[in-house]
Amino acid sequence: MSEFLDRCREAVGAEHVLTDPADMAGYLTDWRRRFTGKALAVVRPADTAQVAAIVKLCAAHRVPIVPQGGNTGLVLGSVPDQSGTAIVLSLARMRRIRALDTINNTMTVEAGCVLELVQNAAAEVGRLFPLSLAAEGSCTIGGNLATNAGGTAVLRYGNARDLCLGLEVVTPQGEILESLRGLRKDNTGYDLRSLFIGAEGTLGIITAAVLKLFPQPAAQLTALAALQTPDDALALLDLAQKRCGAALTAFELMSDFCLQLVHKHFPQLRLPFPDAYPQYVLLELSDSESEEHANGVLEALIGDALEQGLIQDAIVAGSLAQSKALWSLREHIPLAQAEEGKNIKHDISVPISRIADYLRATDALLHAQFPGCRLVTFGHLGDGNLHYNVSPPEHESPDAFIARQDAINHVVHDSVAAFGGSISAEHGLGALKIDEVIRYKSPIELELMRTLKHALDPLDIMNPGKVVRA
Ligand code: FAD
Ligand code: ZN
Questions:
Q1: 171 and 77 in one domain?
Q2: Same domain, 185 and 79
Q3: Most exposed residue of 6, 148, 287, 434, measured as fewest CB within 10 angstroms of its CB?
Q4: Residues 379, 252: contact at Cβ < 8 Å?
């Protein structure tokens, strides 16, 4: 392997082939710190030609490649296994904005661009790049596309796939597939771009993308409503969509227990209501006219919802700082749950209309089989996607509880299947759910996935052991 590493050094420069354990450490452990893998080296190419050169070397030497962006993924997709045979190929140095076209409303960026910087670059020219998630300060566009990331604006703008008009990809053979035309219409055969989006680096390496931009809204308003039940939240969603149409850009559900955890671990974040209510909805309106217009629409909506008994109370953020404070409560839920200790995460979706029934049924199953377990339920209700996380009973050893993880996953995921849902709505499969998903996909779906994997990556060097077994 020393010849292979020498050739890598020739391709990208010796200082960008890391082999010292201390230098590699940050690339080998996942964001949740649950797993640490081993690697032959971490290789940091500067441009697409260097990526292609490294992939060709890997193909020649049969060295597996684990692509990595910001390493914020939650399903162990971006870290290598413990064999020590793979390289981590970090796209972090590839962070140029190659083009910005305000007439075509597109931006062409390299895969290592951090999401927040892309949002800022769009804002500087009066445009909006709407992908938004709590990891935006460190996740990259390449990782967002490879996981088809969702986040809080999917309700209005769609997920990463919907926000991408073209890709540049290095194939597992080291060829460069250049398709950065930025067309909104192109029906010339198979949609190859879509294959690579959501493939979690198992079919090729995304090196650049054309992203879709939108006009910046004239005003954005955030409100927090207090409710009794998820059924009421669904009725509120229906009312809000009738009243606000496309102006409704976020609709997030959080249970009272979520906010209690946030308050316990981040007491500086103030709870907004004097009384506690069982559920809360954080909603956001983006208005193309004016703040006054947005205020009028939101106040009418809240008035109607109060009158119909769908909500018990509501707060409308009166300033940007207040809006940020409300979002901060939502964004601190996963952090607060982590502070509380080990827990079991689920990222599920069911048809929006069935969410309340799903929660009723699954909460009951879990409480019956795992008495005292604490459910941390929050997420993107407007997309039918919830983070349905389970914390151990207060006085039970977390490790004993985590040991029952498979049984708990089966209860949650079997129920998802019964309600016609998906066991991974936005985080992907990675190595974490590669076996779990086999329970829920049909044989023909699995066979077609394997066929695609074999066809594109016959040597199985692209992120092996993730998504689908070759
Ligand atoms: P990484 O973690 O580095 O990689 C993720 C996967 O993509 C891996 O399989 C990797 O091999 C592959 N990959 C990375 N770059 C490339 C590339 N250039 N070409 C090919 N494959 C590549 N996700 C959501 O969808 N919605 C959320 O709301 C959300 N919230 C989050 C909040 C927090 C606090 C955190 C930590 C994560 C959250 N995530 C969320 C998870 C989400 O998947 C990632 O944050 C993000 O999309 C991954 O980007 P990354 O650059 O960190 O990718
Ligand atoms: Zn999410």
A1: no
A2: no
A3: 6
A4: yes
Nearest Cα residue to 40 out of 78, 5, 3: 5
Final residue of a structural domain among 215, 247, 276: 215
Same structural domain for residues 165 and 265?
no
Which numbered ligand comes closest to the C-alpha of 386? Answer: 2
User: From the alpha carbon of 204, which atom of ligand 1 is closest?
Assistant: 20
Token pair for 115: 């999401």
User: What element of type H or E holds 11?
Assistant: helix 2-12
Ligand nearest to the CA of 93: 1
Q: Which of 284, 310, 334 is the last residue of a domain?
A: 334
The residue whose CA has the least distance to atom 1 of ligand 1 is 71
Dump pLDDT digits (tens) for 327-351.
Answer: 999 999 999 999 999 999 999 999 9
pTM of this structure: 0.96
Domain total in the chain: 4
pLDDT tens digits, 401-458: 999 999 999 999 999 999 999 999 999 999 999 999 999 999 999 999 999 999 999 9
> In this structure, what DSSP letter does residue 272 have?
S
Pairing assessment for the beta strands 248-255 and 279-287 based on DSSP bridges: antiparallel
Residue 32 in this model has a pLDDT that exceeds 90: no
